[in-house]
Amino acid sequence: xxxxxxxxxxxxxxxxxxxxxxxxxxxxxxxxxxxxxxxxxxxxxxxxxxxxxxxxxxxxxxxxxxxxxxxxxxxxxxxxxxxxxxxxxxxxxxxxxxxxxxxxxxxxxxxxxxxxxxxxxxxxxxxxxxxxxxxxxxxxxxxxxxxxxxxxxxxxxxxxxxxxxxxxxxxxxxxxxxxxxxxxxxxxxxxxxxxxxxxxxxxxxxxxxxxxxxxxxxxxxxxxxxxxxxxxxxxxxxxxxxxxxxxxxxxxxxxxxxxxxxxxxxxxxxxxxxxxxxxxxxxxxxxxxxxxxxxxxxxxxxxxxxxxxxxxxxxxxxxxxxxxxxxxxxxxxxxxxxxxxxxxxxxxxxxxxxxxxxxxxxxxxxxxxxxxxxxxxxxxxxxxxxxxxxxxxxxxxxxxxxxxxxxxxxxxxxxxxxxxxxxxxxxxxxxxxxxxxxxxxxxxxxxxxxxxxxxxxxxxxxxxxxxxxxxxxxxxxxxxxxxxxxxxxxxxxxxxxxxxxxxxxxxxxxxxxxxxxxxxxxxxxxxxxxxxxxxxxxxxxxxxxxxxxxxxxxxxxxxxxxxxxxxxxxxxxxxxxxxxxxxxxxxxxxxxxxxxxxx
Length: 599
Fold this sequence. Notes:
Its EC number is 5.6.2.4. It comes from Paenibacillus hemerocallicola. Belongs to the helicase family. RecQ subfamily. Keywords: ATP-binding, DNA damage, DNA recombination, DNA repair, DNA-binding, Helicase, Hydrolase, Isomerase, Metal-binding, Nucleotide-binding, Zinc. One of its GO terms (molecular function) is ATP binding. The chain is an alpha/beta fold. The protein has four domains: about 5-200, 3-Layer(aba) Sandwich (Rossmann fold), CATH 3.40.50.300; about 210-385, P-loop containing nucleotide triphosphate hydrolases (Rossmann fold); about 410-510, Arc Repressor Mutant, subunit A; about 525-595, HRDC domain (DNA polymerase, domain 1, Orthogonal Bundle), CATH 1.10.150. It is built from 24 helices and 17 strands. The strands form four sheets. A seven-stranded parallel beta sheet has the order 3-4-2-5-6-1-7, with helices on both faces. Strand 15 (about 480) and strand 16 (about 490) form a beta hairpin. Helix 1 packs across helix 3 (about 50-60). The longest helix has 19 residues, at about 355-375. The chain starts with a helix and ends with a helix.
């Protein structure tokens, strides 16, 4: 990037967004885009993907088109950009015909720097003709994994993007962004969007401010109640896999006196919108929801995300869990695991409208999530390795890393399992294998003659569920694999054969309880923090925008520590640019001064 363009980008970062320096990967992507190159950025939730296209958009002449499937995110980002002084709008299904016509005229008149659109809008002939009349130097595609059949959220409407881009002349710079993508998905993104020798940036998937925990065998409702009640002032999301469980969890929390909201596709649109707004404005501290909620919700101060059930794949889990701690402050991500949840996910796959090829992919993805729940290695490292980063380091924070119980040698039990799988010709699944090992008097066991195997009853002193758990851990640790099918079959890997030959030992430990993470930075004066939050809320209600679009919690925390007295001191705080200081700065300085004087 030429020195002049670099200087302009950094000036926009400081004056508009209030940051002194770019985060990892941002400047490389921005430099490529401003130099006229296509780009693909894979950056975890909270790493600042949006800055990578918003800064170039502010610097370029003409209109930047942002393709995003997330109507809620469009509104949040449009609000935030307008707050920062960059005129931005959106076009989606929430607009009436009259509003749409007005919006088209305003865009044609050059009133906006960025326009957010849903991918389905690109299938409208009227809209594609309209694009041909505009000066569009740059197109950003958010949630770009949706273009891939191998991605966790494939959307056919994304396949029309490249066709529409061919109608814009001259050809715009195209940049694709996503939080999670395996190597196979990355290549699909480049191919389907026809990116031309793109700048490729993958910043790594680790979230250093998050702690991950898997809880097995707990009373879910009791755990949820204790956890939420212990954090009365913190915002959190509780994800459940079905509408019924959302209703039950929400009712349970309400009976305990916890002000919780609900969100799922079975509710009226008005209630969903109202509950979402109450949560964004901090009126509701807890949202209980299906995965219909939160994708693209740019709420920065979510302190915890609890999954009441297992998700359908690691990508979904990491994206949903990653809604905690977007402001960089510590966040907790807890998964409450129960074996029956896996059956629920399999049922949802079978009831889905996907073809058989897609269902096979979904079963394979589900196996990856089950392995996450049973692994004994660092949970963060499991995730980053899943996405293709073999160099992932142990985080030191997750429930596996902080487990200080002694490691047990389970080599003999592992050999019994591997031997049983081998004698069953590697043609059966976990449940049948566990029944044989326990010595179950089962019709199917007798049907196949497994009662005559030498491994029949080899673990008769153990409960079947304990044997199943052992097998799941051995799969998670790479000694066995499961086929990608509705009824997965166990197969042995080379590691298992080494154990059977007595050349390697196997060690395990039981997954521990979740642990809280203390704040890593001085939180400052809590009383002042609450006063600043109330002032922020006053401005938010007056302007009808979510509080975090004015200042993030992390910005308020830094104000509590620095206690600025002047404009220059306040502008040194991350997240405060000149435009925001001009609108709000004096009121916040006055409040900080009054607090310091004890008034």
